Amino acid sequence: MRNILRMAVGDKWLGIYTSEEGEAFRRTLDEAFAVTSGLRNNIGEWVPWLGRLDVQSFTRRMMRVHEKLDRFSSQILDEHETDRRRCARDGGGEFTATRLEEEMEARLTRGGAKAFILDIIAGGTETGATTMEWAMAELLRRPDAIAATTAELGRVVGRGRWVTERDLPALPYLDAVLKETMRLHPVAPLLAPRHAREDRVVAGYDIPTGTRVLVNAWAVARDPASWPDAPEAFRPERFLAGDAAEDVDVRGAHFELLPFDVGRRMCPAYNLAMKEMAAALANLLHGFTWRLPDGVAPEDVSMEEFFGLAMSRKVPLVAIAEPRLPEHLYAGVD
């Protein structure tokens, strides 16, 4: 999350360790995610006439969050508009400042710029963090998978430094762990809505033109027809060389695995997301020895799901980490 915020809005707005405004911004983002996640329990969505009464205060909470985010977005834009000339001159600066320079030609409205910023944050923070938590949960349920990942990291990286982006292509097992995590736990189980462009018959059902179509990526990724080898099991090895799914990728070419959607509605930042998650997960496993709390067996780890803005864990993961690299490498790590 910190990397995405740094790229999108700058260091000041990262939250803890940076500024008071940044920490308030982070708290507002957390509140926004919490409100969105709770919408499925909004009785007004199921009984429309009760929606006007706002008996659970969802509307009031969303309005408060909207006002806070709008205020923060205005402040961020004002600051970056001031820096725009410097960024154009020096060729540096954060993503938002650079994007605002292009705004003059694209004629993006101020409201559009605010939405653009929040889209980047919403699409690139909670989703990645949720995937990371699912990955750690699955690995803690399979100690042999953690051992295989750390052994690969030891061979490629060694114990004298942290993992960098340059190391990622040489870490196929780590890549397989991420793919398998996204197969079993897609953060967006229902892909972006689509409309049928022509009359079709699918599995015996008539689908007329204009029908709204929702693709259940969660079900497809667990379908025995696509994944005949234990589709419900966490088995990263299925994506390694010599296995049936070794060539299956997440970039939309294989319909049995669509964590980033496909076609024109595919996530435009999937490449960045894969690198960010891979680097973060690699360093978590390379830098620390992980275990479950005393008295908790691997099979006791809850894997219940909760669907909100992203499909997160219903029960937060609790694990114990112990440093495993030389002490001097942890200086300045937060």
Detailed description of the structure:
- The chain has 334 residues and is mainly α.
- It folds into two domains: 2-124, no CATH class; 126-330, Cytochrome p450 (Orthogonal Bundle), CATH 1.10.630.10.
- The protein has helices at 2-9, 20-37, 43-46, 48-51, 58-90, 95-106, 110-124, 126-141, 143-156, 172-184, 217-220, 270-287; strands spanning 194-195, 200-202, 205-207, 212-213, 288-291, 305-307, 311-313, 320-323.
- Strand 6 (305-307) and strand 7 (311-313) form a beta hairpin.
How confident is the prediction overall: mean pLDDT?
83
- Residue ranges: pLDDT <50 for 5 or more in a row? none
- Tally of structural domains: 2
In spatial order, strands of the major sheet run 1-4
Strand portion: 5-15%
Q: Topology of this protein?
A:
Layout: H1 2-9, H2 20-37, H3 43-46, H4 48-51, H5 58-90, H6 95-106, H7 110-124, H8 126-141, H9 143-156, H10 172-184, E1 194-195, E2 200-202, E3 205-207, E4 212-213, H11 217-220, H12 270-287, E5 288-291, E6 305-307, E7 311-313, E8 320-323
Antiparallel strand pairs: 1-4, 2-3, 5-8, 6-7
What's the quick description here?
One of its GO terms (molecular function) is heme binding. InterPro entries: Cyt_P450 (IPR001128), Cyt_P450_E_grp-I (IPR002401), Cyt_P450_sf (IPR036396). Helices cover 48% and strands 7% of the residues.
Offer a few descriptive terms.
mainly alpha; Cytochrome p450; 2 domains; 12 helices; monooxygenase; Cyt_P450; iron; oxidoreductase; oxidoreductase activity, acting on paired donors, with incorporation or reduction of molecular oxygen
